[in-house]
Structures are given as C-alpha cells and as structure tokens.
Amino acid sequence: MKIIKFLLLIPFLLSSFLIYAQTKSKIPSTWRLPFSDMPTMNETIVKKEIEKVLTAFGQANNALDLNLKLVDDKEKGFIDRVYSYKGKLIATEWVRNGGENASRTCYLDDHQNIRLVVDNEHGNTWFNDIYSYILGENNRLLRFEFRTDEISYDNKGTGHYKEENIPLSQKLGKVKLLKKAEQSNDLDNDDLDYKELQNTISLLLQKAEYLEKNRVGIHYFKGEVDWKYAIIMQLEILNNGQINGKYRYKKSKANLQLKGQLTEERFALTETDSGGKTTGLFKVRFIEAAKAEGKWYKPNDKKNIHYIDLSPVASYAF
To answer: May I ask the CATH architecture of the domain 217-313?
Structure first.
C-alpha cells in the first residue's frame, strides 16, 4: 500500500519540481555577454555573433539593471561610461579623436578580454559605424563598416539617420567587410592597439570607482517637472546608499520630505508631506556624472507619469 501511495505522489512531485525550476530560471544568478569561441572566420557567422552580443547587451541594460558608472572628464567636457554586472566589467564607452562626434565602445567577454569594438563617427550629413570583432586567443580580427550619407533634420534642428529605425539584423546585413583576417601583431594598425585599449578601460574603471566613492554627501539640484514647473532639491547620500532629502516647487515655500535608496546609478524616492502622508514617488537615473532624469507619479496612479530632469548646482538656500 505504501508503495502504491508513493507511486501516486510521483507526478505531483515531478510537476512541483518543474514549476520550481522554471521559476528559478527566470532569475539570473550570473550573466555575461554571449560570446562564442568560433573556430571560423566566416563573415556571416561573425555578423550573427555581433548581433547576438549587441542584442543581449541592450536587453540586459533594461532587464538586468546593469551597473552604469559615468566618468565626467571635466577638462574635455565629455561623459564616458562603464558598464558592469555583479562585479564583472561588461563594456566601456568613451569619446575619441578629440570630438563629441566620435565614440568607441568595447565589449568584454567573461574573462574580461576585449572581443568586440564598435567605433561610431558622424558629421553633418554622414554616419559611420565600424565593427571590429576579435576572435579567440590569437586575436584574429574581422572588421565591418556600415555607412549612410543621408541625415535629415526636423524643424527643431534634430538630425535623423535614414537607417536609424531598421532592425539590427537588417543593418548588419548591409555592413561591408573592410579587411581580411589579421594576426595579433597587426592589431596595432588602424588605431586598434590592444594594450592601449586595455589601459584606457582600466583608467576609466578607476575613475568611475573614485567618483562612486565620492558621491556620498549632500547634493543640490535644480530641475523641472514636465519641462515647465521649476523645482529645487537637496539630497544627502549616506555610505549605505540611503538617501534623505527635501524638495519644493520654486514658487512654493512648503518643503516635501524625501527618503529613498541609491542602487548603482538609479535612485527611488518616496515623497511625504508635513503630516507624514505619502504624496508621490520618484524613479530617477543618473544620465551623466551628476545630471539625472526620471519620472514622478502618485502612489496609486502609475498611469499618469510626470517627467523629471535634474541638474547639479553648488548650493541652494531652502
């Protein structure tokens, strides 16, 4: 009888295990960019690999909340970016050639080796992307170029690329092979010095970590709600990332209290009035070294979202 009862329990136990496994699989304990050790230099395969890496990075930046650190180069006035996930460096982006119109992004594999370099440049009428894929231990290289010379401008003076909204797979289908496979000693050509790239990445990481440590303290911001209602804000960031602060509309004398938490480059704040009642919620992300943007909404009304932008100021008298 006991054996029969046990056999009857097997389907239930199996289904319970499957439900548990499916639930656990939705929570990534580790994550990395999906690079493959490809033995071939086949152009089509490499293009698919580039698409896979860039797609995964874009999805992870939204879904996994990648740690984004921003390095503000005050001498040149540029913002550089360092991405990591659970302590592992994923990608870095910096301005190159001394101008805002040229940038370089390096994507790293799970061993912190550079595997993909994307160079972007544009002028008034043209746009150029070069994808440099580095394969395996021998650092063999394939380089592709995507170029369009058509940029149109709207009535606000904002430029739009003809190809900007096409799917990534379609865009990569149009890229042209620039060079044949090269050996590691040729990586110094065409501004692809591997050691120099590694040194730049290391320097940016050091700067980002220094800025993160020095974010603790009192910060003042001015900004706008929906780009028309002026606000001023004071935030004190503690060592554990806890935030205490206050803000008010510039035309008002009544301060609203703020409490929240800084998580990497994002912070969530709860707004309360003088009676302690929760009156609003902030979800904000730093988009530059100190500049931030996000949204505000009432506690029980997430459909009516109001947009927030904040810029740092030296001080403000509340």
So the answer is: Beta Barrel (2.40)
Q: What is the mean pLDDT of residues 313-318?
A: 74
How do residues 26-65 score in pLDDT, each as one tens digit? 445 568 888 887 656 678 888 888 999 999 998 887 777 6
- Report pLDDT digits (tens) over 232-287: 999 988 877 789 999 999 888 889 999 998 876 678 899 999 889 999 999 988 76
The pair of structure tokens assigned to 302 is 């997430």
Give the pTM. 0.62
**DSSP E strands: which ranges in the chain?**
67-73, 78-85, 88-95, 102-108, 114-122, 127-135, 140-148, 151-153, 159-161, 176-177, 217-225, 229-237, 242-249, 256-263, 266-272, 278-286, 292-298, 301-313
Q: What is the pLDDT of residue 100?
A: 57
C-alpha distances in Å from residue 282, one per residue of 84, 225, 239, 285: 24, 11, 21, 10
What ranges do the domains of the chain cover? 43-213, 217-313
With contact defined as beta carbons under 8 Å apart, do 179 and 65 qualify? no
Rounded (5°) CA angle 201-206-209: 120
Lookup: tokens for 255: 């301060």
Indicate if the alpha-carbon torsion angle 310, 55, 96, 112 is positive or negative.
Answer: positive
pLDDT digit string, tens, across residues 280-292: 999 988 766 567 8
Q: Where are the alpha helices (DSSP H) in 64-123?
A: none
Task: Give CA–CA dist 289/78, Å, rounded.
Answer: 10
290, 309, 294, 291: which is closest to 230 by C-alpha?
Answer: 309
Checking 212-219 for CB contacts under 8 A at 24+ apart, the result is 212/69, 215/262, 219/290, 219/312
